[in-house]
Amino acid sequence: MAGQAWRADAGGPTGVNLSWYDDSNISVACPWNPLFVTEARVLRGKWNPDRRMWIFPRDETPQIRALLDEIFYADGSPAPGIDILLDLNQFLPDGLLVPALEIAGRRIVSIRPDRSGCQIDHQASLIHGVIFPEGEGLGWSSEAFIEVRYLPEEYLSHLPADQRSAVWVLARHGLDLDELRRHELAAAVRLSELRLAIEHEELADPGLAPTPLEHAPSGPAWRLRCRPNPDGGRQVIVHLDGCMSTQSTRTLTTEEVLDLAARDARLCSTCGAYRTARALGAPTMPGSRRASFSAPGRGRA
């Protein structure tokens, strides 16, 4: 992810400072951080480009303090952050009715005031299954998985063992800029090689054995195989790092394969295989480490 580190070319503070701005506002000066920017806007923050600080209404002070404690250490360096995949059926006790799902002080899922459905935190996504109002609490389908982004890494250490088994870490953030640029360069190289292989039909393999592509040392390795379809197209199977395979249920065009590759390459992380499956509409079931195309079950687990 871009930007857990401060972008030096932009200039700005290296520590964290919260102070009174005027009678009705507070100011925050801190290193650039994508999560803080997103949350700041939710908390009615306004960026002052001249003074390089955020301005917030004073009544948001408790939420701002909690947000700063979650994201930064006192010196302005970013606290370790993680993205997780959560299995609701394992995470919440069977039969428990909860009005909202809260994780690390954040309300991830809650029931809309008019009870027309549920709303999900802007830094979370329902990957598989269905969540719905049920009585006074939340209900969910038999396979409901939620991705939650930018949680403090220390959150995991406070979970009971039975809940910890329901959580999979998808990514850890904190890349410095030099490392990020190396990953981006490696991703660009892999995409160029993938395009070349497709254009020259180097993916054709009558034996269906995976065909490795040359790639830069860092980042996931692409392994592809394809077979002809009766309609004259090709069905492409993508392997990443040998840990998971993602298979389309239909013929992919060259541009679709490249788009799929680009989505993963932009992530430059160990969760690339999981997200590639999601890009194809195939939510990942962590227990099997394979992409599942089965329809979500209905009814409370």
What do you see in this structure?
With 301 residues, this protein is of the alpha+beta class. It has three domains: 8-71; 81-173, no CATH class; 177-291, no CATH class. The chain has seven helices and 19 strands. It has helices spanning 34-42, 61-71, 88-91, 161-164, 177-199, 254-267, 272-279; strands at 17-22, 25-29, 46-48, 53-57, 81-87, 100-103, 106-111, 118-120, 124-128, 131-134, 137-140, 145-152, 167-173, 211-212, 222-228, 234-240, 244-247, 284-285, 290-291. Helix 1 (34-42) runs antiparallel to helix 2, helix 5 (177-199) runs antiparallel to helix 6 (254-267) and helix 6 packs antiparallel against helix 7. The protein starts with 16 loop residues before the first strand and ends in a 10-residue tail after the last strand. Residues 1-12, 201-229, 234-252 and 263-301 have low confidence and may be disordered. Pfam families: DUF6233. Residues 281-301 are annotated as: Disordered.
Chain-averaged pLDDT = 62
User: What is the terminal separation in angstroms?
Assistant: 34 Å
Spatial shape: globular
Approximate helicity band: 10-25%
The largest β sheet comes out as:
4 strands, antiparallel
Low-confidence stretches: 1-12, 201-229, 234-252, 263-301
Number of helices, counting only DSSP H or I runs of 4 residues or more: 7
Number of strands: 19
What is the alpha-carbon Rg in Å?
Answer: 22 Å
Give the domain tally.
Answer: 3
SSE ordering: EEHEEHEHEEEEEEEHEHEEEEHHEE
Pfam families: DUF6233
Region (Disordered): 281-301
Briefly, what is this?
This protein is α+β, with helices and mostly antiparallel strands and 301 residues long. 24% of the residues lie in helices and 30% in strands.
